[in-house]
């Protein structure tokens, strides 16, 4: 009878250990894909699609998943787009920051080796430094810059 009780305890121990390990793995996974407040994150086969649309955000949200491949921060109140805030997102392929109040861009799109789509329409951009896109311009498939109050002065240097 002791051996039957021992087998039962062994089975319960294994069941408990399996449950703890399963829950622990789930916790690690959810922490890695945590989504910032005011954003919606959806898993894609390539990574996370993150949307933070229409919340009057003044800055890029902190804590974006590092496996973000598409980031949509459209229709907010961002005035300065600091690309340095996005540097951890090395898998970023598409960025939509249209319909904000962006007047300036700090940093360069060269820091994002997989980025091929940028939407900056409906902002308040008047000029862009050649360094903003730099060599990344050659890999861009789609860049949308319309409806900005561009300073089109032929004397610009």
TrEMBL record:
<dbReference type="InterPro" id="IPR032675">
    <property type="entry name" value="LRR_dom_sf"/>
</dbReference>
<keyword id="KW-0677">Repeat</keyword>
<dbReference type="InterPro" id="IPR001611">
    <property type="entry name" value="Leu-rich_rpt"/>
</dbReference>
<keyword id="KW-0732">Signal</keyword>
<feature type="domain" description="LRRNT">
    <location>
        <begin position="34"/>
        <end position="70"/>
    </location>
</feature>
<keyword id="KW-0433">Leucine-rich repeat</keyword>
<dbReference type="InterPro" id="IPR000372">
    <property type="entry name" value="LRRNT"/>
</dbReference>
<dbReference type="InterPro" id="IPR050541">
    <property type="entry name" value="LRR_TM_domain-containing"/>
</dbReference>
<dbReference type="InterPro" id="IPR003591">
    <property type="entry name" value="Leu-rich_rpt_typical-subtyp"/>
</dbReference>
<protein>
    <submittedName>
        <fullName>Leucine-rich repeat-containing protein 3-like</fullName>
    </submittedName>
</protein>
<feature type="signal peptide">
    <location>
        <begin position="1"/>
        <end position="30"/>
    </location>
</feature>
<dbReference type="Pfam" id="PF13855">
    <property type="entry name" value="LRR_8"/>
</dbReference>
């Amino acid at each position: 009878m002791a051996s039957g009780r021992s087998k039962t305890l062994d089975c319960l121990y294994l069941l408990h250990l399996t449950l703890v390990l399963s829950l622990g793995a789930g916790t690690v996974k959810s922490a890695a894909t945590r989504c910032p407040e005011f954003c919606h994150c959806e898993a894609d086969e390539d990574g996370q699609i993150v949307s933070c649309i229409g919340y009057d955000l003044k800055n890029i949200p902190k804590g974006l998943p590092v496996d973000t491949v598409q980031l949509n921060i459209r229709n907010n109140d961002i005035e300065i787009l600091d690309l340095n805030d996005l540097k951890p997102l090395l898998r970023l392929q598409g960025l939509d920051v249209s319909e904000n109040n962006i007047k300036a861009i700090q940093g360069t799109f060269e820091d994002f080796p997989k980025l091929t789509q940028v939407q900056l329409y409906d902002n308040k951009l008047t000029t862009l430094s050649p360094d903003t896109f730099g060599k990344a311009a050659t890999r861009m498939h789609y860049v949308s810059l319309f409806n900005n109050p561009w300073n089109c002065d032929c004397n610009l240097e």
